Amino acid sequence: MNPTAARERLTQHIYKTQVPNNALGLLQEALILSTPAESLEKRIRVDGIKTGRVTALDLPGQISEAVGLGILNEAEGAALRDYDAKVSNLLHVDDFAPHELSAGSVQL
Known about the structure:
Elements: H1 5-10, H2 23-49, H3 59-69, H4 74-91, H5 98-101
């Protein structure tokens, strides 16, 4: 996840330009954002969840509670929400609507 020489060497010939609909570019962006997001998530865990001050089970809820409690400031909360949305977008590649999964009726 860290921007190392090894990662650059392994991805040097990959089209990782950060443009819409380029999954590898979006992954590259998420990897870049992961380092600062990790420290923000850790603050939520240590200063919020472990102390019982943050009780939400989902990250968006935890971010909102952490901002409300002053664990994160508004800019940090916005940055973490943006990171979470980008990662969620990458992970939901096989997310289908129910009507897309139904076989429909077969006429014989």
